[in-house]
Amino acid sequence: MTRRWSIAGQLFALQVLVVTLLVAGGTIAAVLLARSDARDAATEEVVSVAETVAHSPNVAAALRTRNPTALLQPYAESTRLATGTDFVVVMAPDRTRYTHPEPDRIGEKFVGTVEPALAGRTVTETYVGTLGESVRAVVPIRDTDNEIVGLVSVGITTKEINRKLLRQAPAVAIATAAALALAAAGAWLLSRRLRRQTHGLGPAEMTRMYEYYDAVLHSVREGLVVVDRDRRVALVNDEGRRLLGLPGDGVTDRPVGELDLPPAVAELLGSGRPADDEPVLAGDRVLVANQQVTRFDGRPLGTVLTLRDHTELRSLTGELDSVRGLTEALRSQAHEAANRLHTVLTLVELGRTDEAVRLATEELALAQELTDQVVGAVTEPALAALLLGKSAQASERGVDLIVDRESRLDPGPLPVRDLLTVVGNLVDNALEAVAGTDPPRRVTVYARSAVDEVVVRVTDTGPGLDPDQVADAFRRGWSTKRAGRGLGLALVGQVVERYGGSYTVTAAPEGGAVFTVRLPVRS
């Protein structure tokens, strides 16, 4: 299978290619510029030398003699050697050479352009002469009467110019190699960092991973919140936004403390501590949170929090617990009823019918009195059934559950679900408070609806509640029991907060605590 290039590898190859092309282009441009500069410098040099020779009085005087070569050849050669030029040719106006680096060429015609020089101007050109291609200048020589008596041409061959450029080649090559090495090293370091950040994945793999991960993150039915090492939100999926009530944008890359999160969730995310199936409250929802620290190559990257909505499940679990408790109470009552029935039958068999009738009548009266008391005070069927079930549970635990005769709660003021949450959790909390205490163990329930509010008051004869612990009692996770999860009163606090009501906890006159909840009635 052909190995696909990673993004880092492709970037490294692309950078090396681009840098190589840039350096090569820069080098070629520099060479061409240097060559042009060298030609310009050579042109200036030959013009300067030619003008110096042409303006020498000795040269003009030598041209007037019968044998100019004898005087001019040594002078031309010494000038050529001194200036580093390749030829200094003095000639007659008809192009006849008087001097030349190659003596055999003396007397021959000069090869090149001389017409502008004969007209009194300086000629510069690149021309192929007897010594090959050269950069040359032709300058007129004037006598004292300003008459043109001859011409002088000074030149430097192109080979010599190129030879001088080649002497600079090692420096250019070293600079080019250094530039390439530095660029390659920079590209390698960048690609190494990119490879570390992309984990060596290729473009297709990253695209596929992003598409799959994005689809999964936004389709799962669990809320997901990812927080980085700086406690800034890196990712929240759709379900997480819904469960936490977060807006659709403006959430990521913000510190956890700046978001409007439920207190329990904000504390969990801010601390970064691990959590395993920990219940948290978020508005009117009961969520189960799991949080773990994420690591890569041993380095912590942040935390991942998952949230599951257990509101309905928690409600069903509560109802199931109530039904289970009622079932146990009914089973116990059935056992007690069987014992009493055997007693009545035995009394009848012994001929003591009056005592048998009295015993049976008393039991029926007690049961009917409790039912009449509850149904008479609470006409809301679901709440009445809840209180009857709690009465059976209380009786099983040896606790007297009393419904205050002043209670009066009819259907309609508030949703039944919220009433069951408040009354059921307050009664459960009271039953737990009196469990294990010395007799009398009593729980009194008062529920009454007025024009503008519903008042629920539950009084117990338990150990009471420290005033400093009242605020904590309605916070998730607080419990007087070691194994308690502390959700009952927290759910009551949620209902109170949602309706804008209030709750108070005071000491009962006979010892214990009085929990009072007031819920405004919305018209």
UniProtKB/TrEMBL annotation:
Enzyme class: transferase
Keywords, alphabetical: ATP-binding, Cell membrane, Kinase, Membrane, Nucleotide-binding, Phosphoprotein, Transferase, Transmembrane, Transmembrane helix, Two-component regulatory system
Listed transmembrane segments: 169-190
InterPro entries the UniProt entry points to: HATPase_C_sf, HATPase_dom, His_kinase_dom, PAS, PAS-like_dom_sf, PAS_4, sCache_3, Sensor-like_sf
Principal location listed in the UniProt entry: membrane
Domain named Histidine kinase: residues: 311-523
Record-level Gene Ontology MF annotations: kinase activity
Subcellular location: Cell membrane
EC number(s) per entry: 2.7.13.3
All residue ranges annotated as the PAS domain in the record: 209-254
Membrane topology listed for this record: Multi-pass membrane protein
Catalytic reaction list: ATP + protein L-histidine = ADP + protein N-phospho-L-histidine
UniProt KW Acetylation keyword: no
Keyword Hydrolase in record: no
PANTHER family in UniProt: SENSOR HISTIDINE KINASE DCUS, TWO-COMPONENT HISTIDINE KINASE
Name the UniProt record assigns to this protein: histidine kinase
Origin organism lineage: Bacteria, Bacillati, Actinomycetota, Actinomycetes, Micromonosporales
